[in-house]
Design goal:
By secondary structure, the protein is mainly α. The chain has a domain of 182 residues. Helix content is 65%, strand content 1%. It has 17 helices and two strands. Helix 3 runs antiparallel to helix 4, helix 8 packs antiparallel against helix 10 and helix 13 packs across helix 15. GO terms for molecular function: misfolded protein binding. This is Mitochondrial inner membrane i-AAA protease supercomplex subunit MGR3.
Length: 505
């Protein structure tokens, strides 16, 4: 039901994960970079040529140069020496600041080019030969004492892992990813190992490698543990840059204790984040980022951070830990608003939060059935009716509250789309399909809730609407789910109609 477990994981992979050719996420909507090209883009500063000095107008002579005297000549020499000294100091500072971006030795560069040639179509994708050349290039780097944290060194290792994957040597690839992750994790935790100005870029590389490694991960528990370790590391970095976020996080931790016992406070301030207050529009009706927000604390690893959080939610679902998945998702949606994430992703996260609330309601429904079965199995003497009644009321209240919050999440997305109808017409113009998918998913979710309540006519209409939207946006995963639920609804409607005919008037 509602994109559970692996289905949610698959959606997240489609939206964020690297493809098999190591495509990384865009750190900005219009840019896509390869994982093995993890160096920051070249600066565009001074890309334009400086304007030439204009000549003096005709008929006007320039001011004559002053006569050179011994004192002025000495002064010029002094200025020359000072300039040379300043230049040398500047060069040393520049070299020191770029120590992590050192280039490969010439011999390693030659081997690297040979390896790239071997893996190309010109050589019929000779991955075995390419793998050997990449390993040879890495050995040259080791002998030349190239820094293992540098971009070029890491790039060779990632190409080796890529060759392992293409040769279906997944265990070897996973081991290499783990070696990389351990190295970055240790470096980030040792004070002074990485310069403060470089920590953000190193964290981004760390998260990218982590997410790539999870594509071939087979052990759910170990993957979940690694995700949590690296997420906490990135989270600490974010909180260290923003006292306001740290204060918010402390308050949020207190509130999230309510999730595992939702009925403890039915009037808590749960709210959705899909509103004109958080999502802005331009004059033409297109959704835009709220650039007035100060989201610098999340840079430059914002996209990777939220992708990893979504993966952690999916891992929790895979291990049937719905309560933790729900807790993580609530925080993620709030943080996405604060970090000024793309509006479509906020909409889709809000819709998926509704799905998680529904999954929790399903689990509580199963708990109610277990309590009922226990009452049937045990005699009145063995069963403490007071305790039984109290437990039933507690679980039922939690279930109803989860259903109410699921409805609120879906309603917020659909109502937002109705109030801002222009976003429906611009869906095909947008590179990010999340807007349309969030509306389709929320419509489907409202259909599931109507089916749960037995309002079959409304459920049928909502499922048909979600099917239409899923087809328009190629949301094939949701399309399959909605078609199954529609078929179930039609069968129930027919059965109800037959039942009403058989009842005597």
């Amino acid at each position: 039901m509602l994109l559970r477990g692996t289905r949610l994981s698959q959606r997240l992979r489609k939206r964020y994960l690297f493809t098999t050719n190591f495509s990384a996420w865009p750190t900005r909507p219009a840019h896509i970079r390869h994982l093995h090209d993890i160096r920051p883009p070249a600066s565009k500063f001074n890309s334009q040529q400086s304007a030439s000095i204009p000549d003096f107008p005709a008929g006007i002579s320039s001011r004559p140069s002053p006569a050179v005297t011994p004192d002025s000549e000495k002064s010029n020499r002094n200025w020359m020496y000072v300039s040379i000294g300043v230049s040398l100091v500047g060069l040393m500072v520049w070299l020191n600041s770029n120590s992590k971006k050192q280039k490969l030795p010439l011999s390693a560069q030659k081997i690297w080019k040979e390896a790239i040639w071997q893996e190309s179509d010109r050589m019929n994708f000779n991955y075995n030969e390419a793998l050997g050349r990449f390993i040879e290039a890495l050995n040259v780097c080791d002998r030349s004492h190239v820094d293992p944290l540098s971009d070029d060194y890491t790039r060779i290792e990632l190409k080796i892992a890529e060759m392992y994957e293409k040769l279906n040597m997944l265990d070897e690839a996973q081991n290499l990813y783990q070696e990389l992750l351990s190295r970055f994790f240790e470096a980030l935790n040792v004070p002074g190992k990485i310069d403060e100005s470089e920590r953000g870029e190193v964290l981004r590389k760390d998260l990218r490698i982590l997410i790539k490694s999870l594509e071939i991960n087979k052990d759910i528990e170990s993957g979940k543990k690694r995700l949590l370790q690296h997420l906490l590391l990135a989270q600490e970095e974010i909180l260290s840059k923003s006292p306001e976020l740290k204060e918010f996080f402390e308050k949020r931790k207190k509130k999230l204790s309510v999730i595992k016992d939702i009925s403890r406070d039915s009037n808590d301030d749960f709210k959705t984040f899909v509103s004109e207050e958080h999502i802005k529009f331009d004059d033409q009706g297109y959704m835009i980022l709220d650039l007035e927000k100060n989201s610098s604390a999340w840079e430059p690893f914002k996209e990777e951070f939220f992708t990893a959080r979504d993966l952690y939610t999916a891992y929790c679902l895979s291990s049937k830990d719905i309560a933790t998945a729900l807790t993580c998702k609530i925080t993620s949606v709030e943080w996405m608003v604060m970090a000024d994430m793309p509006p479509g992703q906020i909409l889709l996260s809000q819709a998926n939060l509704g799905s998680l609330f529904y999954l929790q309601a399903e689990k509580l429904e199963a708990d109610l059935n277990q309590l009922e079965q226990k009452r049937i199995r045990e005699s009145d003497q063995d069963l403490d009716m007071g305790t039984y009644i109290k437990a039933v009321r507690f679980v039922r209240k939690n279930r109803d509250l989860c259903l109410e919050r699921a409805q609120k999440c879906y309603d917020s997305v659909v109502s937002f789309a109705k109030r801002n109808r222009k976003i429906r017409f611009h869906v095909k113009d947008q590179l990010d399909p999340s807007v349309a998918q969030s509306i389709a998913l929320s419509t489907y979710g409202m259909g599931v809730l109507s089916l749960h309540e037995g309002v079959l006519a409304k459920a049928e209409k909502l499922f048909k609407d979600s099917i239409t939207m899923a087809k328009e946006t190629d949301f094939n995963e949701l399309l399959a789910e909605a078609e199954k639920e529609l078929e179930k609804t039609i069968v129930l409607k027919a059965a109800r109609k037959e039942e009403s005919k058989s009842v005597p008037q």
